[in-house]
Write a structure and sequence with these properties.
With 512 residues, the protein is α/β, with parallel strands linked by helices. The protein has 19 helices and 20 strands.
Length: 512
């Protein structure tokens, strides 16, 4: 594809893409077989059949691209991502959720710096872009400024939130001292500084990590602050039976998290409830009546949580979208994989529940809606993204179906869900700017030799066991400092608790 400007400042530029199959995901689910689309600055200004669009707009356009039968889709929306956890891929496999949190992930996260978060978000963002994601909802990390810096550089769209907790077990020492007021105030400051920045691509949400580490004061003040700021709330909800049991035992309700959130009037239209696996029929009704959105993360659910009642939630009118979760709970940050898993997993669940197959459960069209227009509704951005329509933002992906992974190409929608792989996604546009062309992510090349620095991150993410607790230390503090020389304290831990191979010819001397 020809190279377009990758800048947020527009000078009335026009891009015309033609000779494509355009899957609009608009209210009429229109598909143009020989379609064309015109992008003016950051918005879609025309869409229709190629001959007509070429005749009307060719003379105006700075860039005209013949797509030779490729597919155009709205950019995918990943509604549950932990960008700060990308560097922790592989440190918490095959363990239960509480061990995962208290013994692995929270020690890792609490040792991160803002620079670590920036690097982690860059790596995560690159993987998201390759899978066709143009917008994501951050589930909560400790260094939103680092995330925002990476999102702005990559050209993505995001709803960023801080991981917020003010009580409960398992918190690292540096987190346990935070008061409710500090939790709320820090998020207000983030909103003031970063909301609607990066040409409007970054929005700041409020975050609640989970009910087990939240006081009622934090829950209610978060609800009220979100209403005041007119923004969303991202929260992990009803992940495991233990969570429901703890809420039932300590908060005086007859079931669990959703029942209690209903009791305190926390359930609102601006709540994005991640996972929502252990909910009963009554709670599904609570979620539906309140207009709560749910992010379904198939791979992460199968690893640690269980079968979410997705079909029942959809039947109840709940807006359900798809997320990957973070790298330590999924390992593959591909929303394309989640589409495939979501349909098969929920078809298999029908057999488990009813003893009979139901191949119509979560059909391909429903799954495609979950990563497009339902995703846009979940992140409260559906007036501008989630479908290809005149006046909406130009968040577009180009898919090549003419490869061995998708050929032969009979049913467009079915092939996108059941056959497409990440490598079929060739180019990605966000906000009217190309952020990936011909499978090459733009912008980061100027500062990052990707292959070398992934290797450096792998070599410098050291984990060690200290008195039975896995601590994670991000050794890489900046890409300019290599090799890293551990401190005397770090060397003591490494010498005493784990064997450490030399990682380069200039590796540190354990005896010095």
């Amino acid at each position: 594809m020809e190279e377009a400007k990758a800048s947020g400042s527009f000078s009335n530029s026009f891009i015309l893409l033609h000779s494509a199959t355009i899957v609009t995901m608009d209210p009429h689910c229109r598909v143009f077989k020989n379609g064309a689309i015109v992008v003016q600055n950051d918005r879609i200004t025309a869409i229709g059949q190629s001959p007509h669009i070429l005749h009307e707009y060719s003379s105006l356009c700075d860039q005209i691209v013949d797509l030779h039968g490729r597919i155009l889709l709205p950019g995918f929306i990943n509604t549950h991502v932990h960008t700060s956890q990308q560097l922790a891929r592989g440190i918490a496999d095959d363990v239960d959720l509480m061990t995962w949190l208290h013994g692995r992930i929270w020690p890792y996260e609490s040792n991160m710096s803002e620079e670590d978060s920036y690097i982690s978000t860059l790596l995560c963002g690159i993987e998201l872009i390759h899978s066709g994601v143009t917008c994501f909802a951050e589930a909560g990390g400790q260094h939103v400024p680092g995330m925002a810096r990476a999102v702005e550089l990559l050209g993505l769209r995001a709803c960023l939130s801080q991981s917020t907790m003010d009580s409960g077990e398992g918190l690292p020492a540096s987190w346990g001292i935070r008061t409710t007021d500090q939790c709320i105030q820090s998020q207000k400051e983030l909103y003031k500084k970063y909301h609607d920045t990066a040409d409007g691509r970054i929005r700041i949400w409020l975050g609640i990590r989970q009910i087990m580490n939240s006081t009622d004061q934090l829950l209610l003040e978060t609800r009220d602050t979100a209403k005041e700021l007119k923004t969303g709330i991202h929260m992990h909800v009803a992940e495991i039976p233990y969570e429901n049991k703890l809420v039932k035992d300590t908060r005086g309700v007859d079931h669990g998290t959703v029942t209690y959130l209903e009791k305190i009037e926390f359930l609102q239209e601006n709540l994005l409830a991640a996972h929502s696996v252990w909910v009963n029929g009554t709670e599904i009704d609570f979620l539906s009546r309140a207009g709560v959105k749910v992010s379904h993360c198939p791979a992460a659910a199968m690893r640690m949580l269980g079968f979410a009642p997705v079909r029942e939630m959809l039947d109840a009118g709940i807006c359900v979208s798809l997320g990957t979760d973070g790298a330590p709970s999924n390992n593959r940050m591909s929303i394309v994989d989640e589409m495939y898993l979501a349909s098969l997993l929920n078809k298999g669940r029908e057999v488990y529940l009813n003893g009979a197959t139901n191949p119509t459960a979560l059909p391909a069209e429903t799954v495609l809606k979950m990563v497009t227009i339902n995703g846009a509704k979940s992140v409260l951005w559906d007036k501008e993204i989630g479908s290809l329509e005149i006046g909406k933002k130009a968040d577009i992906i180009v898919v090549n179906p003419l490869s061995w992974t998708m050929a032969p190409f009979h049913d467009c929608i079915s092939s996108l869900v059941y056959c497409m792989r990440t490598e079929n996604i060739e180019s990605v546009m966000c906000n009217g700017c190309w952020i990936m062309e011909d499978q090459r992510v733009l912008h980061v090349d100027e500062i990052w030799d990707l292959d070398m620095n992934i290797m450096r991150v792998q070599l410098n993410l050291l984990t060690w066991l200290v008195e039975g607790l896995l601590l994670t230390r991000i050794i890489i503090k900046s890409l300019s400092s290599w090799p890293y020389v551990p401190t005397k304290s770090e060397r003591s831990h490494l010498n005493g608790k784990a064997s450490c191979e030399r990682t380069s010819k200039q590796g540190w001397d354990q005896n010095s």
